[in-house]
Design a protein that fits this description.
The complex is a heterodimer of chains A (110) and B (846).
Chain A: E1 5-9, E2 17-23, E3 26-33, E4 38-43, E5 45-46, E6 51-52, E7 58-62, E8 65-69, E9 76-78, E10 94-100, E11 103-107
Antiparallel strand pairs in A: 1-11, 2-3, 3-4, 4-10, 5-6, 7-8, 8-9, 10-11
Chain B: E1 5-10, H1 14-24, E2 32-38, H2 59-62, H3 69-72, E3 75-79, E4 83-87, E5 92-95, E6 100-102, E7 105-108, E8 112-114, E9 127-129, H4 133-143, E10 148-152, H5 156-167, E11 171-175, H6 188-200, E12 204-206, E13 211-216, E14 222-226, E15 231-234, E16 236-239, E17 243-245, H7 248-251, E18 263-265, E19 276-278, E20 283-285, H8 293-307, E21 321-325, E22 328-334, E23 344-350, E24 355-361, E25 368-374, H9 380-388, E26 422-424, E27 429-430, H10 431-439, H11 445-452, H12 462-475, H13 492-502, H14 507-514, H15 522-536, H16 543-546, H17 551-554, E28 558-559, E29 565-567, H18 578-590, E30 594-597, E31 603-608, H19 613-622, E32 635-640, H20 654-665, E33 674-679, E34 693-698, E35 701-706, E36 718-724, H21 726-743, H22 750-755, H23 760-768, H24 776-788, H25 793-798, H26 801-804, E37 822-825, E38 828-831, H27 834-845
Parallel strand pairs in B: 1-2, 1-7, 2-3, 7-19, 9-16, 10-11, 10-16, 11-12, 18-20, 32-33, 33-34
Antiparallel strand pairs in B: 4-5, 5-6, 8-17, 13-14, 14-15, 21-22, 22-25, 23-24, 24-25, 26-27, 28-29, 29-31, 30-31, 34-35, 35-36, 37-38
Classes of the chains: A mainly beta (110), B alpha/beta (846).
The complex binds siroheme (SRM), flavin-adenine dinucleotide (FAD), iron/sulfur cluster (SF4) and FE2/S2 (inorganic) cluster.
The site of flavin-adenine dinucleotide has 33 residues of chain B, from helix 1, strand 2, helix 5 and helix 8.
Chain lengths: 110, 846
Amino acid sequence: MTKWIDICSIDDLQANSGVCALVEGKQIAIFYTPQNNTVYAIDNYDPFGKAQVLSRGLIGDIKGEPMIASPLYKQHFSLKTGQCFEDETVKNTVYAIRIENDRVEISLEG
Amino acid sequence: MSKKQTLIVIGNGMVGHNFLETLVASDIKDNYDIVTFCEEQRAAYDRVHLTEFFSGKTAEDLSLVTENFFEGNGIKIYLNDKAVEIDTANKIVTSQQGVAISYDKLVLATGSYAFVPPIAGHDRENCFVYRTIEDLEAMTEAAKTAKVGAVVGGGLLGLEAAKALQDLKLDTHVVQFSPGLMSAQLDDGGAQMLANKIEALGVSVLTSKNTTKIVDGTDCLHKMVFADGTELETDIVLFSVGIRPRDEIARCSGIEVGARGGIVIDDQCKTSDPDIYAIGECAVWKEQTFGLVAPGYSMARTVVADLSEQHAVFEGADMSTKLKLNGVDVASIGDAHAKTAGALIYTYQNGADEIYKRLVVSEDKKKLLGAVLVGDASGYGTLLQYSLNSIDLPEHPDSLILPSRSDESVGLGPDALPDSAQICSCFDVTKGQVCSAIENGCTSLASLKNETKAATGCGGCTALLKSVLDSELEKSGVAVNTDICEHFAHTRRDLYNIVMVEDIKTFDELMDKHGNGGLGCDICRQAIGSILASYWNEYILEKDHLSLQDTNDTFLANMQKDGTYSVVPRMTGGEVTPDGLIAIGQIAKKYKLYTKVTGGQRVDLFGARVDQLPLIWKELIDAGFESGHAYGKSLRTVKSCVGSTWCRYGVDDSVGLAVELENRYKGLRSPHKIKFAVSGCTRECAEAQSKDIGVIATEGGWNLYVCGNGGMKPRHADLFATNLDKDTLIKYIDRVLSFYVRSADRLQRTSVWMENMEGGLDYLKSIVIEDKLGICSSLEEQMQHVVDNYQCEWKTTIADESKLKRFRTFINSDKTDENILFVEERGQIRPATEEEHQHLALSEDA
Ligand code: SRM
Ligand SMILES: Cc1cc2nc3c(=O)[nH]c(=O)nc-3n(C[C@H](O)[C@H](O)[C@H](O)COP(=O)(O)OP(=O)(O)OC[C@H]3O[C@@H](n4cnc5c(N)ncnc54)[C@H](O)[C@@H]3O)c2cc1C
Ligand code: SF4
Ligand code: FES
């Protein structure tokens, strides 16, 4: 069974923007789009800028695919798969995330 | 390898210099040791724009010599030394200073001199000609004590000189021998319309006046006496009755000169001596001399080609001209006087709007032979192309000059031009060359200018060049997509207008009504965030706006490479009190921040974690500081020099003005960052001419410069207006900036905005100074709204608990980012390198 870790309340999230959570020593960027009431979780580390910053980028979509633009050098990563749009050899880790009773929960498995 | 030959150029004027530039850019440059004699005390400068000397351009601005040109290309220049003799038998040139040099090839580019009619009294004090920078300096000096000025000669140059006298605040008269102004270019009707317009601008025009003598005046220094018995009192007399080729050195060296002067040349620009060429205004070709730069440049190219043993012929040149005289459009094309046998004439005269147009067409009404346009020269480009390329005229040629009554289009689209059509006459650039540059990737006006040089001379061809560019891009299907991004099929400018017209206040509303319904992206979110902020000036971390800000604006600080931030408090005009400095020092020390003085005259504190930002700012605000907006696409700094308060040369209080301007425009969000500077005198210690808005104090008020840039591609700012009082200055800045905010592309600095503006500086002036679009009051209101709604974003943020939540590093923990590591260097911190990171991580594990 998937192990869900409680992170925060849904009120702690920022609409159409990001926050960062520390989950078992890992920094995870969490984004919330109220339009479709969806949350996304991706590793906070920017593999290009080599800094923990993705939670502070701008979100949006590229041809419908939700993405985050790194605040350092502006590469785009899919929020669904972690795939970098500019460089097919680079993929960031994404995590399972859900909202249960107004609480945000993350799973670090698979 | 054979020994190099020596090539001497006599005269380093516009054409002589253009020849040197063309030569060193060619394949044969290494065949010659190059020497040039320059009689003037300074090397080549732009005579065409000489008049701009009066609106603030310096000799340096006018210089045509690029940095290190002579040394870098191994050219020996003898400044202030006139060549006096050519020994054609032994091939030696001797100069006034005694230099004697043997040549293999010689190029004469001695130009012409202004002719002074031998009227009695022509050599009295304060009688000038209009040809060199020294002439202008002498006029300026004389104007200090003069009230009235008279120009003798109502040709092109005379009218330009009249404008100069007016700029020097003299009561100005133009005295013309013939019955009409610009008799070489205009017919009687055109001349009359021009005279009316010039008079309306406050210059008195006296025609059919033959000056017989100049004697002592009663109220003024001189009295000019005319053949018809009338008189004119004046303090300054400026002769501009024509030019004469400077052929003296050819004459005394046995080189053939024309019956009416000028050094005779053939189609290869060779003189009667096969090793000697003559180019520019000193030359006479088929009994014609050419008083314009373009034919001179074309001769220069011919000579370089001939020296390269390529077949080249000089084929004469088109003498069509278009210019703005004191703001009046005047143009003349080809056979304006209808001298061609059988020529037919169409005229259109509109007394109400003071417009005069005349077409001269061939007997069969098929070809355009010439044209005259006064008051509205917008058709010049099209008409010139008809005439130069012998394009068949439309069925009713007069449709080309009549105001359009139907939707029938008479303009000649760029597609109608053959590849051989000359787009830029200054640099002889054809449509074919422009098109191939476009094919090779020049897809902006700026890159096209860089690549082909078109539109970098007199600028007259800019509009045509732009239309060729647009049409080519459209054809190649590159269909210049000006959409801001995939979410909005609009340009930034369109979006701005939509926001204005529909009173839109949020991104979501704009997306609903005009977007594709998606989430947007980093491009449209930021651009629209900026538009909303410029127009409404609401707090940018307001719920509806927060998600539109990139990290710098979200956290009101600049993100550095390691994810920490820098903090820049505002120091208006670069001014800071000792207590302020101490407070900053103490805060920096407390939070262990790296401290540096920026290039913008203030202090930057680096290495703050996101969670420390509110704490640092609380202390800065308590010490009296406010946000410096170093993070925003907004006003950054207004740099100042110390000015008249302390500086022994200062003529006005530059610091005071800088502080006032910075306080006025601080917080203004714009398409890109904006920088100002104010200098207290022309020494320009604040470098105002490299800023978006630059102000320099003069004895008569403030001079305003716009659209300068440092950075990647430096651009000298353009002089926009002179001797302004402070209220007018601020009014103009309000308008320029509001118009920039409305119309620029995203991330377009004012410099690039100006480079891409059709009509350029004149257009901007017409909007801001003459209010051509009638929007000045709305532009001012818009700025006043921003000024009235200023807030220090940090102050607002600190005061709002709910906003502070955002500055936690982690939403679920009070820990800080372990990835941030500093090491010490020169007594301060700096981010650890990757190697140091690994090293430190290892030692921690151990
Ligand atoms: C801190 C500072 C360097 C310094 O230590 O002196 C600086 C730092 C940065 N500059 Fe600058 N510029 C600084 C003065 C300048 C100046 C000098 C000036 O303002 O007189 C220039 C040339 C003048 C000009 O802009 O015309 C300058 C031309 C640029 C450019 C090139 C702009 C251009 O139009 O070509 C960029 C890149 C850009 O904006 O796209 C840039 C961008 C940046 C960025 C934002 C780069 C980045 O994305 O990290 C740097 C971050 C600022 C920060 O973290 O605070 N910076 N930068 C200076 C801050 C001045 C201030 O007090 O606000
Ligand atoms: C106010 C003004 C406005 C103008 N506006 C326009 C315009 O809008 N469009 C346009 O096309 N043209 C314009 N012209 C004309 C244009 O400037 C000339 O056509 C151009 O400068 C000619 O270049 P040149 O090299 O032949 O002569 P010059 O530029 O006069 O250069 C000749 C140089 O040779 C030097 N010289 C002469 N004899 C000797 C010697 N023996 N030894 C050493 N040096 C010598 C002279 O001192 C001079 O520096 C304007 C001219 C003036 C004065
Ligand atoms: S620009 Fe002039 S007033 Fe200002 S410091 Fe320099 S010399 Fe002094
Ligand atoms: S025609 Fe003068 S710049 Fe092109």
